[in-house]
Amino acid sequence: MALLSFLFNTKPKTASAAKERLQIIIARERSGRAGPDFLPALHQELIAVISKYVKVNPDDIKISLNSQGNLEVLDVNVVLPDA
User: Is there a contact between 65 and 36 (Cβ–Cβ < 8 Å)?
Assistant: First the structure.
């Protein structure tokens, strides 16, 4: 019986179900929010990571999110100090 239930399994795969749920959540988030609320946190995390390797002024890291048609482009501009 175990072999038959394995071959004719009608339960949906968990990976495809999780992917569907994630797509629904992302679509809902995009349509329901007014602006990108993750940019300030992303900016602070980038400052922390870059500062581990290079001494950089936090004001020299610029982040912007631009919409181009149905695409969103995250632009990160880091001005590194002279060597």
Answer: yes
Structure tokens at 60: 């020299």
Could you tell me which residues come within 8 angstroms of residue 68 by beta carbon, excluding any fewer than 6 positions away?
none
pLDDT of residue 63: 84
Q: Which of 80, 75, 45 is nearest to 63 (CA)?
A: 75
Q: Is 36 helix (H, G, I), strand (E, B) or coil?
A: coil
Which letter does DSSP use for residue 35 in this model? S
More confident residue, 65 or 57: 57
Rounded mean pLDDT of 62-76? 82
Note whether 61 and 42 are within 8 A (CB): no
Return the residue matching tokens 């038959």. 4
**Collapsing DSSP states into helix, strand and coil, what is residue 43?**
helix
Neighbours of 7 (CB within 10 A): 7
